[in-house]
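User: Sequence for Glutamine synthetase below. C-alpha coordinates please.
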Amino acid sequence: MAGNLSFDQLKKAVSDGEIDTVLACIVDMQGRLAGKRFLAQYFVDSAYGETHGCNYLLACDIDMEPVPGYKAASWSKGYGDFVMKPDLSTLRRIPWLEKTALVICDVLDHHDHEDLAHSPRAILKKQVKRLSERGYIGYFASELEFYLFSETYDSARKKHWQGLDSASPYIGDYQIGITTKEEGVMRRLRNEMEAAGIPIENSKGEWGPGQEEINVRYAEALEMADRHVILKNGAKEIAHSEGKAISFMAKYNYGLAGNSSHIHNSLWSADGGTPLFFDKNAEWTLSSLGQQWAAGQLKYAKELTWFLAPYINSYKRFQAGTFAPTKIMWSEDNRTAGFRLCGEGTKGIRMECRIGGADLNPYLAFAALIAAGLAGIDEKLELQKPFVGDAYQASQLPEIPKTLRDAAETLESSAMLKQAFGEEVIEHYMHTARWEQFEYDRRITDWELHRGFERY
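Assistant: C-alpha coordinates for Glutamine synthetase:
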Protein backbone atom coordinates (compact mmCIF):
# COMPACT_ATOMS: atom_id res chain seq x y z
CA MET A 1 0.00 0.00 0.00
CA ALA A 2 1.36 3.40 -0.94
CA GLY A 3 0.07 5.26 2.13
CA ASN A 4 0.07 4.35 5.79
CA LEU A 5 -3.54 5.10 6.64
CA SER A 6 -6.61 3.11 5.63
CA PHE A 7 -9.92 4.86 5.06
CA ASP A 8 -11.37 3.18 8.16
CA GLN A 9 -8.40 4.38 10.19
CA LEU A 10 -8.93 7.87 8.82
CA LYS A 11 -12.58 7.84 9.84
CA LYS A 12 -11.64 6.77 13.37
CA ALA A 13 -8.89 9.40 13.60
CA VAL A 14 -11.38 12.06 12.50
CA SER A 15 -13.95 10.82 15.02
CA ASP A 16 -11.33 10.88 17.79
CA GLY A 17 -10.24 14.40 16.88
CA GLU A 18 -6.74 13.31 15.82
CA ILE A 19 -7.18 14.54 12.24
CA ASP A 20 -9.21 17.58 11.26
CA THR A 21 -7.82 18.36 7.79
CA VAL A 22 -7.40 16.28 4.64
CA LEU A 23 -5.32 17.53 1.73
CA ALA A 24 -6.76 16.22 -1.55
CA CYS A 25 -4.00 16.75 -4.13
CA ILE A 26 -3.42 16.23 -7.80
CA VAL A 27 0.03 16.48 -9.38
CA ASP A 28 0.38 19.29 -11.90
CA MET A 29 2.56 19.38 -15.01
CA GLN A 30 5.44 20.80 -13.00
CA GLY A 31 5.31 17.90 -10.53
CA ARG A 32 3.81 19.97 -7.71
CA LEU A 33 0.93 19.13 -5.40
CA ALA A 34 -2.19 21.17 -6.10
CA GLY A 35 -5.60 20.73 -4.55
CA LYS A 36 -7.86 21.50 -1.63
CA ARG A 37 -7.84 21.40 2.16
CA PHE A 38 -10.96 19.60 3.33
CA LEU A 39 -12.56 19.70 6.71
CA ALA A 40 -11.80 16.08 7.56
CA GLN A 41 -15.35 15.20 8.58
CA TYR A 42 -16.70 16.42 5.25
CA PHE A 43 -14.06 14.42 3.41
CA VAL A 44 -14.94 11.12 5.11
CA ASP A 45 -18.68 11.80 4.76
CA SER A 46 -18.69 12.74 1.08
CA ALA A 47 -15.61 14.09 -0.70
CA TYR A 48 -13.68 10.82 -0.49
CA GLY A 49 -15.65 9.77 -3.60
CA GLU A 50 -14.61 12.69 -5.77
CA THR A 51 -14.16 16.42 -5.89
CA HIS A 52 -13.48 18.84 -8.74
CA GLY A 53 -10.93 21.36 -9.91
CA CYS A 54 -10.46 23.79 -12.77
CA ASN A 55 -8.88 22.14 -15.80
CA TYR A 56 -6.49 25.08 -16.23
CA LEU A 57 -4.36 23.39 -13.54
CA LEU A 58 -2.99 21.18 -16.31
CA ALA A 59 -2.72 24.03 -18.79
CA CYS A 60 -0.78 26.73 -16.99
CA ASP A 61 2.88 27.56 -16.51
CA ILE A 62 4.99 27.46 -13.36
CA ASP A 63 3.72 30.97 -12.47
CA MET A 64 0.12 29.65 -12.56
CA GLU A 65 -0.62 31.77 -15.61
CA PRO A 66 -3.15 30.20 -18.02
CA VAL A 67 -1.20 29.50 -21.21
CA PRO A 68 -3.02 30.10 -24.51
CA GLY A 69 -2.97 27.46 -27.20
CA TYR A 70 -3.64 24.22 -25.33
CA LYS A 71 -6.24 22.02 -26.99
CA ALA A 72 -7.30 20.45 -23.70
CA ALA A 73 -8.22 23.67 -21.88
CA SER A 74 -8.59 27.29 -22.97
CA TRP A 75 -10.60 30.49 -22.56
CA SER A 76 -12.65 29.54 -25.62
CA LYS A 77 -13.63 26.30 -23.92
CA GLY A 78 -14.43 28.17 -20.70
CA TYR A 79 -11.84 26.47 -18.46
CA GLY A 80 -14.29 23.96 -17.08
CA ASP A 81 -13.85 21.31 -14.39
CA PHE A 82 -12.14 18.00 -14.19
CA VAL A 83 -12.72 15.33 -11.60
CA MET A 84 -10.25 14.82 -8.76
CA LYS A 85 -10.70 11.20 -7.73
CA PRO A 86 -8.95 10.36 -4.43
CA ASP A 87 -6.80 7.23 -4.64
CA LEU A 88 -7.52 6.05 -1.11
CA SER A 89 -4.52 3.70 -1.17
CA THR A 90 -2.32 6.82 -0.97
CA LEU A 91 -3.85 8.11 2.28
CA ARG A 92 -1.22 9.04 4.84
CA ARG A 93 -0.68 11.18 7.89
CA ILE A 94 1.43 14.29 7.41
CA PRO A 95 3.39 14.65 10.68
CA TRP A 96 4.84 18.09 9.92
CA LEU A 97 1.34 19.61 9.59
CA GLU A 98 -0.98 19.64 12.59
CA LYS A 99 -3.78 17.04 12.53
CA THR A 100 -3.44 16.60 8.78
CA ALA A 101 -3.74 13.71 6.33
CA LEU A 102 -3.06 13.72 2.58
CA VAL A 103 -4.43 11.78 -0.35
CA ILE A 104 -3.31 11.89 -3.97
CA CYS A 105 -6.06 12.12 -6.57
CA ASP A 106 -6.25 10.86 -10.11
CA VAL A 107 -7.49 13.38 -12.65
CA LEU A 108 -10.52 12.20 -14.64
CA ASP A 109 -12.48 13.65 -17.53
CA HIS A 110 -15.52 15.49 -16.22
CA HIS A 111 -17.88 13.73 -18.65
CA ASP A 112 -16.83 10.09 -18.95
CA HIS A 113 -14.79 9.73 -15.74
CA GLU A 114 -11.87 8.20 -17.64
CA ASP A 115 -8.25 9.14 -16.82
CA LEU A 116 -7.37 12.49 -18.37
CA ALA A 117 -4.71 11.42 -20.86
CA HIS A 118 -2.35 14.38 -20.30
CA SER A 119 -2.44 14.11 -16.50
CA PRO A 120 1.08 13.17 -15.29
CA ARG A 121 -0.25 10.38 -13.08
CA ALA A 122 -2.34 8.97 -15.94
CA ILE A 123 0.67 9.02 -18.25
CA LEU A 124 2.68 6.91 -15.81
CA LYS A 125 -0.25 4.59 -15.08
CA LYS A 126 -0.53 3.86 -18.79
CA GLN A 127 3.11 2.78 -18.98
CA VAL A 128 2.83 0.77 -15.77
CA LYS A 129 -0.12 -1.04 -17.34
CA ARG A 130 2.05 -1.90 -20.35
CA LEU A 131 4.56 -3.47 -17.98
CA SER A 132 1.83 -5.38 -16.15
CA GLU A 133 0.44 -6.78 -19.40
CA ARG A 134 3.84 -8.41 -19.96
CA GLY A 135 4.11 -9.75 -16.43
CA TYR A 136 6.58 -7.12 -15.23
CA ILE A 137 6.80 -4.75 -12.30
CA GLY A 138 9.01 -1.71 -12.70
CA TYR A 139 10.88 -0.82 -9.54
CA PHE A 140 12.14 2.76 -9.40
CA ALA A 141 14.02 4.98 -6.98
CA SER A 142 14.83 8.65 -7.39
CA GLU A 143 17.69 10.27 -5.48
CA LEU A 144 16.85 13.90 -4.81
CA GLU A 145 19.45 16.62 -4.32
CA PHE A 146 18.76 20.12 -3.07
CA TYR A 147 20.40 23.14 -1.47
CA LEU A 148 19.55 24.08 2.09
CA PHE A 149 19.85 27.76 2.97
CA SER A 150 20.07 29.63 6.25
CA GLU A 151 17.52 31.98 4.75
CA THR A 152 13.78 32.14 4.65
CA TYR A 153 12.06 32.23 1.29
CA ASP A 154 11.14 35.85 2.06
CA SER A 155 14.73 36.87 2.82
CA ALA A 156 15.98 35.10 -0.31
CA ARG A 157 13.39 36.97 -2.37
CA LYS A 158 14.44 40.31 -0.85
CA LYS A 159 18.05 39.53 -1.81
CA HIS A 160 16.86 38.84 -5.35
CA TRP A 161 18.18 35.29 -4.93
CA GLN A 162 21.77 36.55 -4.83
CA GLY A 163 24.40 36.26 -2.08
CA LEU A 164 22.39 33.68 -0.16
CA ASP A 165 23.74 32.08 3.00
CA SER A 166 23.88 28.32 2.49
CA ALA A 167 23.51 25.98 5.45
CA SER A 168 27.26 25.40 5.36
CA PRO A 169 29.89 27.77 3.95
CA TYR A 170 31.94 25.16 2.14
CA ILE A 171 31.66 21.77 0.47
CA GLY A 172 30.82 19.02 2.95
CA ASP A 173 30.24 16.04 0.69
CA TYR A 174 29.83 13.00 3.00
CA GLN A 175 31.33 14.99 5.90
CA ILE A 176 29.52 14.15 9.12
CA GLY A 177 30.74 17.23 10.99
CA ILE A 178 29.22 19.59 8.45
CA THR A 179 25.95 17.72 8.08
CA THR A 180 25.53 17.62 11.88
CA LYS A 181 25.10 21.39 11.67
CA GLU A 182 22.23 20.84 9.21
CA GLU A 183 20.42 18.24 11.31
CA GLY A 184 17.69 20.62 12.45
CA VAL A 185 16.03 20.20 9.07
CA MET A 186 17.51 16.92 7.88
CA ARG A 187 16.64 14.87 10.98
CA ARG A 188 13.05 16.07 10.79
CA LEU A 189 12.96 15.33 7.09
CA ARG A 190 14.14 11.73 7.54
CA ASN A 191 11.96 10.92 10.53
CA GLU A 192 8.79 12.70 9.51
CA MET A 193 8.86 11.30 5.99
CA GLU A 194 9.24 7.84 7.50
CA ALA A 195 6.23 8.55 9.72
CA ALA A 196 4.30 9.63 6.61
CA GLY A 197 4.87 6.23 5.00
CA ILE A 198 7.81 7.31 2.86
CA PRO A 199 10.71 5.07 3.91
CA ILE A 200 14.00 6.97 3.97
CA GLU A 201 17.24 5.06 3.66
CA ASN A 202 19.68 7.90 4.37
CA SER A 203 20.68 11.50 3.80
CA LYS A 204 24.14 12.90 3.17
CA GLY A 205 26.00 16.03 2.28
CA GLU A 206 26.51 16.58 -1.44
CA TRP A 207 29.09 18.29 -3.62
CA GLY A 208 28.12 21.88 -2.92
CA PRO A 209 28.05 24.10 0.19
CA GLY A 210 24.76 23.37 1.92
CA GLN A 211 23.81 20.79 -0.70
CA GLU A 212 22.02 17.66 0.50
CA GLU A 213 20.92 14.33 -0.93
CA ILE A 214 18.13 12.16 0.42
CA ASN A 215 17.50 8.59 -0.67
CA VAL A 216 14.05 7.01 -0.53
CA ARG A 217 13.57 3.24 -0.53
CA TYR A 218 12.76 1.94 -4.02
CA ALA A 219 9.16 1.06 -4.88
CA GLU A 220 6.86 0.24 -7.77
CA ALA A 221 7.00 3.12 -10.25
CA LEU A 222 3.67 4.81 -9.42
CA GLU A 223 4.22 4.58 -5.68
CA MET A 224 7.76 5.93 -6.04
CA ALA A 225 6.51 8.92 -8.03
CA ASP A 226 3.93 9.61 -5.31
CA ARG A 227 6.68 9.45 -2.68
CA HIS A 228 8.87 11.79 -4.72
CA VAL A 229 6.33 14.61 -5.02
CA ILE A 230 5.25 14.39 -1.38
CA LEU A 231 8.90 14.44 -0.30
CA LYS A 232 9.64 17.59 -2.34
CA ASN A 233 6.58 19.38 -1.04
CA GLY A 234 7.19 18.28 2.55
CA ALA A 235 10.88 19.21 2.46
CA LYS A 236 10.00 22.82 1.64
CA GLU A 237 7.30 22.92 4.32
CA ILE A 238 9.61 21.49 6.98
CA ALA A 239 12.39 23.90 6.02
CA HIS A 240 9.96 26.83 6.14
CA SER A 241 8.85 25.84 9.63
CA GLU A 242 12.51 25.88 10.72
CA GLY A 243 13.17 29.33 9.23
CA LYS A 244 15.15 27.81 6.37
CA ALA A 245 14.71 27.53 2.61
CA ILE A 246 15.32 24.69 0.15
CA SER A 247 15.87 24.89 -3.60
CA PHE A 248 15.49 22.04 -6.06
CA MET A 249 16.62 24.17 -9.02
CA ALA A 250 18.78 22.18 -11.39
CA LYS A 251 21.44 24.90 -11.31
CA TYR A 252 20.94 27.81 -8.94
CA ASN A 253 24.53 29.09 -9.15
CA TYR A 254 26.85 28.88 -12.17
CA GLY A 255 29.90 28.15 -10.02
CA LEU A 256 28.36 25.39 -7.90
CA ALA A 257 27.20 21.82 -8.49
CA GLY A 258 23.69 21.34 -9.83
CA ASN A 259 20.85 19.38 -8.26
CA SER A 260 20.16 16.01 -9.84
CA SER A 261 17.46 13.40 -9.56
CA HIS A 262 19.19 10.17 -10.53
CA ILE A 263 16.63 7.49 -11.40
CA HIS A 264 17.36 3.83 -10.63
CA ASN A 265 15.13 1.37 -12.50
CA SER A 266 14.76 -2.37 -13.04
CA LEU A 267 12.13 -4.98 -13.91
CA TRP A 268 10.92 -7.74 -11.63
CA SER A 269 8.36 -10.51 -11.98
CA ALA A 270 4.71 -9.61 -11.46
CA ASP A 271 4.74 -10.94 -7.89
CA GLY A 272 7.82 -8.86 -7.10
CA GLY A 273 9.82 -11.93 -6.14
CA THR A 274 12.18 -12.46 -9.06
CA PRO A 275 14.66 -9.88 -10.40
CA LEU A 276 14.50 -10.02 -14.18
CA PHE A 277 17.72 -8.09 -14.75
CA PHE A 278 20.00 -10.47 -12.82
CA ASP A 279 21.69 -13.33 -14.64
CA LYS A 280 24.90 -14.52 -13.02
CA ASN A 281 26.01 -16.13 -16.29
CA ALA A 282 25.39 -13.09 -18.50
CA GLU A 283 27.91 -10.44 -19.42
CA TRP A 284 27.99 -7.84 -16.66
CA THR A 285 25.50 -10.20 -14.89
CA LEU A 286 22.83 -8.21 -16.75
CA SER A 287 20.20 -10.44 -18.35
CA SER A 288 19.32 -10.17 -22.04
CA LEU A 289 16.06 -8.48 -20.98
CA GLY A 290 18.00 -5.96 -18.93
CA GLN A 291 20.41 -5.34 -21.78
CA GLN A 292 17.57 -4.68 -24.22
CA TRP A 293 15.89 -2.36 -21.69
CA ALA A 294 19.11 -0.38 -21.23
CA ALA A 295 19.75 -0.28 -24.98
CA GLY A 296 16.29 1.22 -25.50
CA GLN A 297 16.93 3.95 -22.96
CA LEU A 298 20.23 4.76 -24.63
CA LYS A 299 18.72 4.79 -28.13
CA TYR A 300 15.89 7.11 -27.17
CA ALA A 301 17.69 9.22 -24.55
CA LYS A 302 17.72 12.35 -26.71
CA GLU A 303 14.03 12.01 -27.49
CA LEU A 304 13.04 11.72 -23.84
CA THR A 305 15.47 14.30 -22.42
CA TRP A 306 12.76 16.95 -22.11
CA PHE A 307 10.96 14.72 -19.60
CA LEU A 308 14.17 14.66 -17.55
CA ALA A 309 15.03 18.33 -18.02
CA PRO A 310 11.89 20.41 -18.64
CA TYR A 311 13.09 24.00 -18.07
CA ILE A 312 15.57 26.49 -19.50
CA ASN A 313 17.56 26.24 -16.28
CA SER A 314 17.70 22.44 -16.49
CA TYR A 315 20.30 22.61 -19.27
CA LYS A 316 22.67 24.85 -17.29
CA ARG A 317 23.41 21.78 -15.16
CA PHE A 318 25.03 19.76 -17.97
CA GLN A 319 28.60 20.96 -17.48
CA ALA A 320 31.80 18.91 -17.72
CA GLY A 321 33.54 18.05 -14.47
CA THR A 322 30.49 18.64 -12.26
CA PHE A 323 29.22 15.05 -11.84
CA ALA A 324 26.31 15.97 -14.14
CA PRO A 325 26.54 14.00 -17.40
CA THR A 326 27.03 15.52 -20.82
CA LYS A 327 27.18 12.33 -22.92
CA ILE A 328 24.75 9.52 -23.72
CA MET A 329 26.58 6.33 -22.85
CA TRP A 330 26.42 3.65 -20.22
CA SER A 331 29.19 2.47 -17.97
CA GLU A 332 30.01 0.13 -15.15
CA ASP A 333 30.08 2.30 -12.04
CA ASN A 334 31.32 5.44 -13.80
CA ARG A 335 29.77 8.74 -12.73
CA THR A 336 30.84 10.63 -15.85
CA ALA A 337 28.38 8.74 -18.09
CA GLY A 338 24.68 9.41 -18.61
CA PHE A 339 23.72 5.87 -17.56
CA ARG A 340 25.46 3.76 -14.91
CA LEU A 341 25.06 0.07 -14.09
CA CYS A 342 24.63 -0.40 -10.34
CA GLY A 343 24.46 -3.54 -8.20
CA GLU A 344 26.38 -5.67 -10.69
CA GLY A 345 26.56 -9.29 -9.55
CA THR A 346 23.56 -8.97 -7.19
CA LYS A 347 19.78 -9.26 -7.34
CA GLY A 348 19.67 -5.49 -6.99
CA ILE A 349 21.27 -4.93 -10.39
CA ARG A 350 19.72 -1.92 -12.08
CA MET A 351 20.31 0.96 -14.46
CA GLU A 352 20.79 4.45 -13.08
CA CYS A 353 19.81 7.29 -15.38
CA ARG A 354 21.91 10.27 -14.33
CA ILE A 355 20.51 12.80 -16.81
CA GLY A 356 17.54 14.13 -14.83
CA GLY A 357 17.64 17.18 -12.58
CA ALA A 358 15.78 17.69 -9.30
CA ASP A 359 13.32 19.89 -11.21
CA LEU A 360 11.84 16.96 -13.18
CA ASN A 361 8.29 15.65 -12.84
CA PRO A 362 8.81 12.02 -11.70
CA TYR A 363 5.63 10.70 -13.33
CA LEU A 364 6.71 11.98 -16.74
CA ALA A 365 10.34 10.94 -16.29
CA PHE A 366 9.52 7.41 -15.13
CA ALA A 367 6.95 6.99 -17.91
CA ALA A 368 9.43 8.07 -20.59
CA LEU A 369 12.12 5.72 -19.29
CA ILE A 370 9.64 2.83 -19.22
CA ALA A 371 8.51 3.57 -22.78
CA ALA A 372 12.13 3.63 -23.99
CA GLY A 373 12.98 0.44 -22.12
CA LEU A 374 9.99 -1.40 -23.58
CA ALA A 375 10.93 -0.15 -27.06
CA GLY A 376 14.36 -1.66 -26.54
CA ILE A 377 12.79 -4.99 -25.62
CA ASP A 378 10.35 -4.92 -28.55
CA GLU A 379 13.12 -4.02 -30.98
CA LYS A 380 15.46 -6.62 -29.43
CA LEU A 381 18.21 -4.03 -29.31
CA GLU A 382 21.76 -5.07 -28.57
CA LEU A 383 23.52 -3.24 -25.75
CA GLN A 384 26.80 -1.71 -26.79
CA LYS A 385 29.95 -2.24 -24.75
CA PRO A 386 30.27 -0.06 -21.66
CA PHE A 387 32.31 3.10 -21.85
CA VAL A 388 35.54 3.21 -19.86
CA GLY A 389 37.27 6.45 -18.96
CA ASP A 390 36.31 10.13 -18.69
CA ALA A 391 33.14 10.59 -20.72
CA TYR A 392 33.48 14.38 -20.50
CA GLN A 393 36.56 14.17 -22.72
CA ALA A 394 35.19 11.57 -25.17
CA SER A 395 34.25 13.68 -28.19
CA GLN A 396 33.01 10.65 -30.15
CA LEU A 397 30.11 9.99 -27.77
CA PRO A 398 26.61 11.31 -28.53
CA GLU A 399 25.72 14.36 -26.48
CA ILE A 400 22.74 15.09 -24.29
CA PRO A 401 20.77 17.97 -25.87
CA LYS A 402 22.45 21.22 -24.83
CA THR A 403 19.36 23.43 -24.66
CA LEU A 404 15.64 23.22 -24.07
CA ARG A 405 15.11 24.12 -27.73
CA ASP A 406 17.23 21.15 -28.85
CA ALA A 407 15.43 18.76 -26.50
CA ALA A 408 12.00 19.97 -27.59
CA GLU A 409 12.85 19.47 -31.26
CA THR A 410 13.92 15.87 -30.66
CA LEU A 411 10.81 15.21 -28.58
CA GLU A 412 8.58 16.59 -31.33
CA SER A 413 10.04 14.14 -33.83
CA SER A 414 9.80 11.07 -31.57
CA ALA A 415 7.58 8.45 -33.19
CA MET A 416 8.26 6.10 -30.26
CA LEU A 417 6.95 8.49 -27.60
CA LYS A 418 3.97 9.53 -29.71
CA GLN A 419 2.99 5.88 -29.99
CA ALA A 420 3.59 5.17 -26.30
CA PHE A 421 1.96 8.29 -24.86
CA GLY A 422 -0.41 9.31 -27.65
CA GLU A 423 0.13 12.15 -30.12
CA GLU A 424 -2.22 14.54 -28.27
CA VAL A 425 -0.30 14.01 -25.02
CA ILE A 426 3.03 14.73 -26.70
CA GLU A 427 1.56 17.83 -28.34
CA HIS A 428 0.28 19.01 -24.95
CA TYR A 429 3.77 18.85 -23.45
CA MET A 430 5.39 20.20 -26.60
CA HIS A 431 3.22 23.27 -26.12
CA THR A 432 4.51 23.48 -22.56
CA ALA A 433 8.11 23.35 -23.81
CA ARG A 434 7.46 25.98 -26.48
CA TRP A 435 5.90 28.31 -23.92
CA GLU A 436 8.86 27.94 -21.55
CA GLN A 437 11.22 28.80 -24.39
CA PHE A 438 9.05 31.74 -25.51
CA GLU A 439 8.88 33.16 -21.99
CA TYR A 440 12.66 32.98 -21.64
CA ASP A 441 13.46 34.35 -25.08
CA ARG A 442 11.61 37.61 -24.44
CA ARG A 443 13.09 38.27 -20.97
CA ILE A 444 16.10 40.45 -20.09
CA THR A 445 18.44 38.65 -17.72
CA ASP A 446 20.70 40.12 -15.03
CA TRP A 447 23.66 38.73 -16.97
CA GLU A 448 22.68 40.73 -20.06
CA LEU A 449 22.26 43.94 -18.05
CA HIS A 450 25.59 43.50 -16.27
CA ARG A 451 27.39 42.80 -19.53
CA GLY A 452 25.74 45.27 -21.83
CA PHE A 453 24.08 48.23 -20.08
CA GLU A 454 27.18 50.39 -20.42
CA ARG A 455 29.44 48.50 -22.82
CA TYR A 456 27.20 47.86 -25.84
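Residues 221-241 form the longest helix (21 residues).
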